[in-house]
Amino acid sequence: QYRSLKKAYENCEVVMGNLEITCIDRNRNLTFLKSIREVTGYVLVALNQFDTLPLENLRIIRGTKLYEGRYSLAIFLNYRRDGYYGLRQLGLRNLTEILHGGVYVDQNKFLCHADTIHWRDIIKNPQAELLVVPSNNSRRCHRSCNGRCWGHQEDQCQTLTKTVCAEQCDGRCFGPYVSDCCHRECAGGCSGPKDTDCFACTNFNDSGACVTQCPQPFVYNPTSFQLEHNPRAKYTYGAFCVKKCPHNFVVDHSSCVRACPSNKMEVEENRIKMCIPCTDICPKVCDGIGTGSLQTAQTVDASNIDKFVNCTKINGNLIFLITGIKGDMYHGIGPMDPERLNVFRTVNEITGYLNIQSWPENMTDLGVFSNLATIGGRVLYSGISLLILKQRWISSLQFQSLSEISAGNVYIFNNSRLCFYNTVNWTSLFRTSSQKILMRNNRDPKECMEQRMTCDRMCSDEGCWGPGPDQCLSCRFYRRGRTCVEACNLFDGDVREFANGSACLECDSQCDKMDGNTMTCLGQGPDQCVKCLHFKDGPNCVEKCPDGVQGATSFIFKYAKANNECHPCHANCTQGHARGSGHKFSFDGGSGCGGSNNLCLTPLIAAGIIGSLFLMVILALSVAVYVRRKSIKKKRALRRFLETELVEPLTPSGTAPNQAQLRILKETELKRVKILGSGAFGTVYKGIWVPEGETVKIPVAIKILSEATGPKANVEFMDALIMASVDHPHLVRLLGVCLSPTIQLVTQLMPHGCLLDYVHEHKDNIGSQLLLNWCVQIAKGMMYLEERRLVHRDLAARNVLVKSPNHIKITDFGLARLLDADEKEYNADGGKMPIKWMALECIHYRKFTHQSDVWSYGVTIWELMTFGGKPYDGIPTREIPDILEKGERLPQPPICTIDVYMVMVKCWMIDADSRPKFKELAAEFCRMARDPQRYLVIQVGAHFQLTCSSSNISTKCDRLTELTLLDEEDLDELMDAEEYLVPRGFSMPPPSYSTRPRVDSNRVRNEKRTQSLTAGHIRQYAVCNQLTFSQKTFMRSLCINQYFKRLTWRC
């Protein structure tokens, strides 16, 4: 580990990626890390035993990739459990900027001063997560450090560059005054106000100056109004502007990239590899092991080898381990069929490395890579780009097309039967002089010679990859395709050739084979033939003369003379074929012409007359057919009318009829009591519904539309239709509609308001059981909507109402849409949308499905688990799509275990089909609710009172709360809406005698718990003192539990 760390970072100033320092013991010399000034990814320091972290010159951590998706700097477990060795001092005295991500410092037994650092001065994002656990061995800072330091020495004080700046500074500074502000492109501080005084750059470094972007390849000329080539153009390479990309990178527009995007292909122009758009289908680029779709794969195996079918380029690495070749029983992967390895015969480039540590026993070579031309080495395996290790069965490599190893070393060890490797001139394949070839413990070359395992005599001294003339690196004489030959077929052979340097190329198929010492062709193409096989048209040999070929302005006709040369027909000739001798010609239905005007078989005038007559006949027939069809159509229409055939054919959709009932209420039946809230579309009141002709009074919520007519009224009618169609315990039910001048929607009254406010106000009294029950209830309500093909589109905690602590209901169908039987999705028009709750396909394409509701469900659960937290708080709405596309998601709530958080993450998958169904979510949270303390870690005080012990008590809690919501009215006839809507059947009064009840252990436990919480209940029902006599009488009629009866009588 230490050797690879030193080899990778010695004399390194900028780390393009992550810096991971792990498992280093205390006696190692780490001074080579002092040269590092910048890390583009994250810094991980873990499981080490050294005393000091020598990154004293590190100024900036960019955090383009974060550890565990949250941290740019992670330092933990740096001590030996059974000793006194471990990290004692960070030594990051020049670290002044972390552009993205937070800081995690914990479980460093001997570390001092980490908790004295003002980390918020270093971290750019104020919302980034910061967790620094103080150590028990803290030593004081030097008195000149003002209590903030990296170590106890005087030169270890922390330098503040943000929190001490003047208000006018929009970034960092080098002093407290207005004139001490750094340039806005500076990162990590500066020594002056100019863009060349920065210690590091926020965006790009252009020859020492910090700029927003590098000089572009084309600039606009305002004089000529055209884009012109920019002679100062540079490419972006990480955070730097460079004139030329590294040789193992490719140029895409104005950037140096590791691989071209999917709609471009890689070409080389003027020795520069560039990405250009594909004209048709791009060469297939596939992800390698450890990248893209194979991010978690460790080797090529039977489960993933089909992903490499027809691949021409591997973007990443190819790794062959024993678990891939012989199978991995632990993961249920069978052994590899050697025939399936032939998929790699189409591969001609690997951008990373090729690692072969296992191979089928019946395959004695690597011939499946016979078309592999380049190993890029953009990613290396411990500095190696080609590794072949411990293969007892391989006798030859057979990389016959390999022409370049762009970066990295070659490592060929312990291959007991391998020959030919020592003949290869490896340096001719390398791009740099620093590349090396390491070969040990392979078969002795002397034994190979004794077994006649040597290069073919046609191979040059450059060596070969295996036996035969097709395995040569270069040929001693000539090359035909991939095979070396002694001479080209210039004068004999079935296929005649010509020599282009040392390459033998075939003559064109229209060349006639010559005998003797005369060559058939002098070069490539039909114009290089010595003699034509058929005809000659100008300089080119052709199979036949042009006959009706499209020219620039007209068709071209030619005929062949006696010497088989093609000549143009006379201008008056069109078609026909003249043949014969002398002046006698005959017509035989072909095409062509004679050489003079009097030999034309079809004059242009005659052809024009015949063509005109033909067109006139066609036109007359068309008119006749049209008139006839119109007459028939009129007769059929008249007959259908007379026979009353007006019934349309049946096209049943299979959708069940909507038998929901919508009540039309009179305005005199409704009484408004108190305003609950108001918005752009109207006002919501608490009220009472007194059905006409009855004495009952039902607490309701009344939504009054602010405008009586127009599109908004139509929207409210759609609300009424959808809400009247649902009937589920966890969906708010519509009681009726009042068609007054201002439309009124009447729904059930939810006493405790919305769930978002509820969890925020009672967060200290909410336990894990209650939270998981809510998750189940929301999932079941949404599952009901999904079964009814209803997409909600606005699921959030604010749109979930609390009937009681044990009973919640989903509401606000203002965005809901009902899908037809054959619809899978709904495409919305314009309008404001709750972006932070929406799936990515909803934001981009306004496409809503049940699976997009699953995404919103995940955000809703996150709101509950954070007790009313705001998703993506502090992030502008316009940045949400970019954040989601980069893979960022809401963080794990502190109370959630990884099991609960993984359910949320599944809801936020980019691929909608990969998200769980509501039925699966309901089942999963039901399982968790049976053991809530295992999945949610919440410390709740003894005064927790939000879960009633039984459904009866819960119902009484609701009724008592409803009493407090209404004015003092005659409430003797007050009735819950659901009770009123339940059909009334015949009921018998209970008998006057009583029996000895069965002892229920749950009831005993609940009664004990009730007695222990007397003080809490008295506080909850202190509102009793404010009730009227009729309200108290109503409460007495409801109470059946002895404890509540005593409490009510006290009232």
TrEMBL record:
Biased composition (Basic and acidic residues): 997-1009
Catalytic activity of the protein: L-tyrosyl-[protein] + ATP = O-phospho-L-tyrosyl-[protein] + ADP + H(+)
E.C. number(s) listed in UniProt: 2.7.10.1
Enzymatic class: transferase
Active site: 794
One GO cellular component, as annotated: basal plasma membrane
Compartments it resides in: Membrane
Region spans: Disordered: 983-1009
Gene3D superfamilies linked to this entry: 6.10.250.2930, Hormone Receptor, Insulin-like Growth Factor Receptor 1, Chain A, domain 2, Phosphorylase Kinase, domain 1, Receptor L-domain, Transferase(Phosphotransferase) domain 1
Membrane-spanning ranges: 604-627
Pfam families, A to Z: Furin-like, GF_recep_IV, PK_Tyr_Ser-Thr, Recep_L_domain, TM_ErbB1
Record keywords, A-Z: ATP-binding, Disulfide bond, Glycoprotein, Kinase, Membrane, Nucleotide-binding, Phosphoprotein, Receptor, Signal, Transferase, Transmembrane, Transmembrane helix, Tyrosine-protein kinase
Binding residues for ATP: 676-684, 703
Taxonomic superkingdom: Eukaryota
Protein kinase domain residues: 670-936
MF GO annotations: ATP binding; epidermal growth factor receptor binding; transmembrane receptor protein tyrosine kinase activity
Topology class, membrane: Single-pass type I membrane protein
GO BP: ERBB signaling pathway; negative regulation of apoptotic process; neurogenesis; positive regulation of cell population proliferation; regulation of signal transduction
Homology family: Belongs to the protein kinase superfamily. Tyr protein kinase family. EGF receptor subfamily.
Protein's name in the database: Receptor protein-tyrosine kinase
Organism: Neogobius melanostomus
